[in-house]
Amino acid sequence: MNKNILSAFLFSSLATFTACNKHMEHKYPDTKKDVVEEEYFGTKVADPYRWLEDDKSSETAEWVAAENEVTQEFLSKIPFKKGIQDRLTELWNYEKITAPRKHGEWLYFYKNDGLQNQYVLYRKKPNSEVEEIFLDPNSFSEDGTTSLSTIKFTPDGKLAAYATSTGGSDWRDIYVIDTKTKEIVEAPVKNAKFSNIAWKKNEGFYYSKYDQPKDGSQLSGMTQHHKLMYHKMGTPQKEDKLVFGGIETPRRYVGAYVTDDQQYLVITAAVNTTGNELYIQDLSKKNAPIITLVDNFDNNHSIIYSDKKQFWIETNYNAPNGKVVVAKVNAPERAHWNDLIPETENVLSVSTSGKKIFAKYMKDAISKVYQYDLKGKKEKEVVLPGVGTASGFYGEDEDKTLFYTFTSYTMPSTTFEYNIKTGESKEYIRPNVKFNPNDYTSEQVFYASKDGTKVPMIITYKKGLKKDGQNPTILYGYGGFSVSLQPSFSVANVVWLENGGVYAVPNLRGGGEYGEKWHLAGTKMKKQNVFDDFIAAAEYLKKEGYTSTEKLAIRGGSNGGLLVGATMTQRPDLAAVAFPAVGVLDMLRYNKFTAGAGWAYDYGTAEDSKEMFEYLKGYSPYHNVKQGVAYPSTLITTADHDDRVVPAHSFKFAAELQAKDAGKHPVLIRIATNAGHGAGKPTSMIIEEYADIFGFAWYNMNVTPGLNHKVDSKNM
Q1: Which of 345, 373, 417, 589 could cross-link 428 (Cys pair, CB 3.0–4.6 Å)?
Q2: Residue 61 included in any domain
Q3: Is 677 labeled as catalytic in the residue annotation?
């Protein structure tokens, strides 16, 4: 949405409304209803709020301003909201440091001194304690809303290309910096989107881009022709060469990386969020042809390592949980692949360092890591510090040690240094959070979904919890796109937990926790399984005494926003509070915006068939709000620069809920300005949003948090 238009109307008073007290009738902005219908297979479907899809119109801007005014009026009257924000700020104010990566002569790592809006990229020499700032994204914009999205170094570490995002948008500008002088040496490359950066020595880099949309705005217009480009250093962007993609491969997501030995360009192409074609090009030969290794989108494949004789490839071809295969350089096609690390009952992901393969498995969403040699011999298990999530294990061939991070719902992300030869781990960086993990516990349970499928869920709470049904509980879910929800620490959730709250995360079908079979069990005509799994999780929590309907909030973002929207329209009696965030809420038109067409593998589209149309319409949150039904207290959250899931989804859903809800509970929408889908959001905005979410939840559960917490740091 145009920022100037939005600002002009920010304080407009288009709506007359009462003071927002939860015991009073709620008055919302008068939202125009148009007579708009679209026909699908002979069925006409009304879409009265389609005008809200126009993010460039002043009329939409007026509506946004009026809705925000109502929402902020309500939130400002929550008596303990400031206390929540103060406690969040206090907890957030600790030094955060990521695991380092070596580039050239330096170790690079990100650090936030506590409340900085964006993490700062630092560096230091190995075996030295002297640090220096390399790149500070907080200097990119005055309000901290321009972020650093990615950075890639040349093999010798002398140059780095980094991409920035403005206001949370997926569009990127790429800059090149000399690592010695820290000076920008190239004019920015524009219009990169969904892009990796892959250096070809120091000569230039590969990136992916779209042309600007011809129809609609930059933030909502459909993008179809993804292009893999090569930018040669010292030349203007207009001379960049198209390597792959474009008009001849419509609606593909195209990406690339270069093997560590700089021998091969690896190209991936996908039409959905899972499954990819795989190509290689020999960079040592001028004008070498692009060779096809895989010519379909049925499975996932990536080259993880190579030498002059063969490729090591991670794939789920004939192995839904994943495996590692090898292929000879002179016969790399899939027909010639040979298994190296076979499939197991647990889902696999791999990385390499020190000429070793690190196999990271998920067992019921919990990490297990094993070290293999390049011939596929298992050498040792990496002994992890607890039950949780391990990530990292990346490095170069010459590395003797590497770094990894470990976290859980009760353990802040801690960095460990691992000796590849001995297999020993030692603590490298432990954050000093004002939180004692010994006061809390996480337990994993398995519950039965509607069809009898066993679904795992991790429930976290303060020790001594009474299962009397009176504990305020957040049930958080996702369930899609093969995304796995593994345990991770959230400083924001500490505020919820220390005030007697319960935080529960089920691993729903549609995710990747049990491989591709689990994912497919929650897609297209099986999407209802995801909602059933989530509803069953809520019923389990109530049956076992963790909480009750009056003390339960359901929450999820993006595809998880769809989850919450579908759940609350199917079971409005399930929970007291609902938080659909940046959700996909209009299932008949999601594929009409930005890159939404790429989600069809999970969802299907209304154009596919009459059966698919009817199935989508049957659960689409926007199309299933019913007149006269009392819905939960609802706070929809979105952002004006979200060009992943355009805010029109949330706008239309909010308008429909406000028009038809028969209850006395508030139905509000919180629209962040100069923010996007979530990545790169400034710390100050994150804290403010969590204060609103927790405050809204407690207030509508009739719970007053204590907010006076002293932590015994002796055991921290």
Answers
A1: 417
A2: no
A3: yes
